[in-house]
Amino acid sequence: MLAMSAPAADKWVAAWTGASHGPYPSGNAVAQPDLAALLPGAVANDQSFRLIVRPGLWGSRARIRLSNVFGSQPVTLDGVFIGVHGMGGSLVPGTNRPVKFAGGKTGVTIAPGALVWSEAVDLPFVKKAASAEWMGRKLAVSFHVAGKSGPMTWHAKAMQTSYLSRPGGGSHGAEESADGFPFSTTSWYFLDAVELMAPAATQVVMGFGDSITDGTNSTLNGDDRWPDFLAQRLHAAFGARVTVVNAGIGGNQVVGPPTYDPAKPIGGGPSALERLERDVLTVSGVTTVVWLEGINDLGAAKASAEDVIEGFRRGVERLHAKGIRVVGATITSALNSTPAQGTAEVDAKRKAINEFIRHGGVFDGVADFDAATLDPQTGALRAEFRPGSSVGGPGDGLHPNRAGYQAMANSIDLKTLLPR
Predict the structure, then answer these.
(1) For residue 133, what pLDDT band results from cuts at 50, 70 and 90?
(2) Which tens digits make up the pLDDT trace of 327-381?
(3) For the chain, what percent of residues have pLDDT higher than 90?
(4) Which of 16, 104, 128, 212 is the most buried (most CB within 10 A)?
(5) Is the per-residue pLDDT at 124 higher than 90?
(6) How far is 316 from 334, CA to CA, in rounded Å?
(7) Which among 345, 352, 248 has a CA at the least distance from the CA of 292?
(8) Which domains does the chain have, with CATH numbers?
(9) What is the mean pLDDT of residues 156-169?
């Protein structure tokens, strides 16, 4: 059972995260339209974005975090609004609310390398945040890029359709209709967190890792990554007292690259250890992290199992120092998949790391995703978990599909996620 303390004041908790990994267009988007004509020179220019996100819980007050972490010049965002997503690029009438920043300003200029939180925004239409009517509803965060943005900090693999205007299209965030947002994207830009005010006892579970947490091979707009399926189980068991957020990044590694240079970006972004502070420790209310990662270190990066294990030790130590539980997830098989990850050598190192995760005594619990998805006859991903759910086809043998992600989430003992 989830331990509940005496009623206390509400607190900010992470309701959605979309970990930024580099400047557009570096990264690994899925089903992305060709945006060359809409973002010429890989920058936004006097145009509006309407980003669609699904919060893991609801509340009557919200705030957002905007990022220029990978920018090389200041970027000015104004005309910022938050409302309930309706259909396509439109909003539920009467829900769009202006977002303000320090001093009540309606816009903000974000320095290169910086993050900015908004002021709190009242959402008076959310009367009963824990009621079933809000489960699964999505938010739309809209904003206008004033002038030219320079390099855009983004999250490539949203697995969610969002909307944008044409260059020179002006500010449309205040509009409820979709008329100002005729074009689509499957990525998120500048926005990396949404927090909501929730009861003080609320628990936040974060999925942290690479593309298998980010949702490659799951259904576009289906919200069926393994953290999404886990959220369904937790909500069924505990209601709104527990929520799940996702900090996966396609291509991410535990320990590599040694340093990340936005001027020479790689698709997976900074290492897990480098981004731990920004993506986990500086968002609010995280109580448990489920960490699934390592296959990219072993593949193209050719790291040793010992290097990855030491990286896990260092990361868990930092999370434990902040009072965060860490559940280690075993690495799923990539045998006979891609040229980089599918070799017998990589599989041997993967098995060594999994033994450490299961028996090393470092983690507070284990999510045995390997056991949930492995074909013991072939040593590879089970055949029914291979075909692609996002764009069809046979899949790549590395990323589980929708059914595989469901099996992974169903394999987790929920008691390992919660404080005893």
Answers:
(1) confident
(2) 999 999 999 999 999 999 999 999 999 999 999 999 999 999 999 999 999 999 9
(3) 94
(4) 212
(5) yes
(6) 25
(7) 248
(8) 11-193 (no CATH), 201-417 (3.40.50.1110)
(9) 98
Structure tokens at 261: 């240079």
- Per the structure block, which two tokens stand in for 377? 């006859």
The one-letter code for the residue type at 330 is T
Closest CA to 336 of 382, 291, 296, 370: 382
Contact status, residue 246 vs residue 209, Cβ threshold 8 Å? no
pLDDT tier at 2 (50, 70, 90 boundaries)? Answer: very low
Residue entry with tokens 């707009």: 221
Q: Are 243 and 202 in contact (CB under 8 A)?
A: yes
In the numeric block, the tokens 């239409």 are attached to 125
d(CA 140, CA 187): 13
CA distance 419 to 325: 8
Q: Give the per-residue SS3 of the chain.
A: CCCCCCCCCCEEEEEEECCCCEECCCCCCCCCCCCCCCCHHHCCEEEEEEEEECCCCCCCEEEEEEECCCCCCCEEEEEEEEEEECCCCCECCCCCEECCEHHHECEEEECCCCEEECCCEECCCCCCCCCHHHCCCCEEEEEEEEEECCCCEEECCCCCCEEECCCCCCCCCCCCCCCCCCEEECCEECEEEEEEEECCCCEEEEEEECHHHHCCCCCCCCCCCHHHHHHHHHHHHHHHHEEEEEEECCCCCCCCCCCCCCCCCCCCCCCHHHHHHHHHHCCCCEEEEEEECCHHHHCCCCCCHHHHHHHHHHHHHHHHHCCCEEEEECCCCCCCCCCCCCCHHHHHHHHHHHHHHHHCCCCCEEECHHHHHECCCCCCECHHHCCCCCCCCCCCCCCCCHHHHHHHHHCCCHHHHCCC
CA distance 18 to 32: 17
Q: Which of these, 244, 252, 205, 62, lies nearest to 139 by C-alpha position?
A: 62
- Residue bearing tokens 């359709």: 161
pTM for the model stands at 0.96
> What is the radius of gyration, based on Cα positions, of the chain?
20
